[in-house]
Structure formats: structure tokens, C-alpha cells
Amino acid sequence: MTANNIESSSYIFQDIFENNWNETVNTFDDMNLHENLLRGIYGYGFEKPSMLEKLAIKPCIAGRDMFAQAYSGSGKTSSYVISVLQRIDPEIKDCQALILAPTRELAQSINYVISSVGQYMNITCHACTGGTHIHSDIERFEKGVQIVTGTPGRVTDVINRSKLRIDHVKMLVLEEADEILDHGFEEQISGIVDKLPSSTQIVVFSASLPAELDKITAKVMKDPVKILLKSNNLTLEPIRHVLHQHLSQQERDVIVQQFQTGSSQVLITVDLFARSINHQVNLYINYDLPNSMDNYIHRIGHSGAYGRKATAITLITKEDQGMLRSIEKYYDTHIEELPADIANLI
Q1: Higher pLDDT, residue 262 or 115
Q2: Torsion (CA) 217, 194, 154, 186 in degrees, nearest 10
Q3: Which of 154, 222, 229, 230 is nearest to 192 (CA)?
Q4: pLDDT at 287
């Protein structure tokens, strides 16, 4: 990549992000990634980096602490997954990267992406979450796991039992950090950070910037790269708009696996579960509008990820029109009425 390419890209990104890192990389090929990692990236279906990936991957690979504000579908998961896979030393079989998420489903979804993108790299990964017997986690750790994705409670448990060695951890990722705090995991996060090597790189992704999160990151991060999305760019433009909690954990796991592997092609779900799905979805249908505007982007964010074209259809009544206009204003977008030739649209 030439200097001119970097400068012109940085100029464009200044209109989108507020950040203290100006260098962007426009293609995966220009990121100096391992050959087998590139093979996995393209094999998974990633064709070109998202705006966030162009900014975030290079400093992340360089070992810089980083705080990035990002929403579902912006490329946040792939930003740290690619960075983690690039930084792993295949000769060291102990845990080198720890990724914490607020829910079991999200942790398992992240683990699936790591396994898929890293399938040609001979790297081991494991989802360490509640809802399963802890002995299955311990057995995996005894065999050696290089990347651990999990929920703060279960990860804290295995660390306190001395069943997960963390003296080789070089990277800690907090995914949806605001949600982690909302779930009451602040104490567990602080405890884990205190036990990690002082040289551990800390990477934080969050959709919002609560004061508690700012306080924690200020205490544990060293001169972090900050990538903050400007409020007027919380947009839904990657998508063309035309407008249960009673399952056991085992049943949820089966459903997610079937959907991610393609054996099941239609998934009906609720808001909390929807944001945990990290898959190449090309059609989202909202049976009704969400209760909050933030949930709208979490529902359909992944459908337009990585530059892919996708469609989101929302069913509304006359009583919903006020909320619909509010969503349009909030995201600075226009939601079209569903045309008669819906087959051509999809």
C-alpha cells in the first residue's frame, strides 16, 4: 500500500470516526496476515474489510491497547478474531488469548467464528460458558487450548480453580463491554485483569460509553488507540430497508449450531438472542418494532456486515408509525415501504 492510499483513506475515515489512529488498510491482502489466516478469511466469505476493520486490525495486531465503539454488523467480531489469530504462537499450547462476552450464546458464536476463520491454522479454541458441566471445560484445558472465549462468571471459576493457565495470555478482549457491565460482571472482570500478566494487551468493544466502563478502561489500559463512531454515523446504510427464554441451554446450543452450519436456514428468536447470531444472514424479518431504538440495530446489524447486500423487512401497524419515524431520525436513514415485487427485492 502506498502512502497516498493511506492518507486518502484516513481523510475519508475522519468523517466517520473520532480516533487517534489515522492509518487505514483497505484490503486483507495488505494487512501482512499469515497465509493460512487469509485463506480462512476468504473461505469464510469475507471479501473486503469493513470501515472498522480497516482502522482496527492493524493496531490490534501491533499489540496496542484499543477501545472501539462499534455496533452489530460493523465488523467488530472479525476485527478482533483476525487480530487474535494473527498473534497466536502455534508452538505454545496454553491459553494466549481470552475473549469475554456477556452471554453464553454470544461467546459460543464468537468461538464458532474463530474456529471457522482459523480452520487452516492448527490452532485450538474453546467456549467456556455456564449452562454446561465445568468438567468438560477442565478436560479441554488439560489438552491445551490457545484461545478461550467465555462468560466472565465461568472463566473466573476455572481460573480460581487453577484449571486455566493464564500466564501466557497476551491478549484480553471484552466484547460488548457495556453489556458485560449491565449483567453485573464488573467484579469478575477486575479480578481477571488483576491475575493476567502486566504486559497483556487489552481490547474493548462497546456499543455505548457508560461512565463505569470509562473508569475501568482508564485504570487498566495503556495509551489505548481509540476508535469512536461519530453519533451522526450510527447509520443503517449497509442494509436496504423496506419496510425464548423457555428453552434449555442444550436446546439453544443445538439451534445455534444448526443455523450457523446451514442445516437450518430460518431462525425465529427474541432480541437478546438475535444480537448473538454472527452469521451471513441475507434477510431479517421483524415481526414488530423493538421496544428501544438501540435494539433495532442489534436485531439486523449482522445482515449488512462485511459489505454484503441484505434486506430487512419490518411489519408495522398504524400505531407503529411514530416509532418508525423515530428510528429513521435516530439512524439518519429512510425506511422504504415494501414494494409489490418483493421477489425481485430479495
Answers
A1: 115
A2: -40
A3: 154
A4: 85
Q: Cell 408495522 appears where? A: 316
HEC letters along 260-271: HHCCCCCCCCCH
**CATH number of the domain located at residue range(s) 3-233 in this protein:** 3.40.50.300
pLDDT at position 219: 87
Q: What is the pLDDT of residues 5-30, one digit of tens each?
A: 333 333 334 444 566 677 889 899 99
Kindly provide the b/e burial profile for residues 49-60, where b requires at least 16 CB atoms within 10 angstroms of the residue's own CB: bbbbbbbbbbbb
By DSSP bridging, strand 225-229 and strand 17-19 are antiparallel
Give residue limits of the domains in the chain. Answer: 3-233, 240-345
- The CATH number of 240-345, from 3.40.50.300, 3.30.390.30, 3.60.15.10, 3.40.50.720, is 3.40.50.300
Domain 3-233 shares a fold with domain 240-345: yes
Q: Is residue 225 left, alpha or beta, with left meaning phi > 0 and alpha meaning psi from -120 to 50?
A: beta
- The residues that bridge with 204 in the sheet, in sequence order, are 67, 174
> Which residues on neighbouring strands pair with residue 202, listed in sequence order?
172
Give burial (CB, 10 Å; 0-12/13-18/19+) of 219: exposed
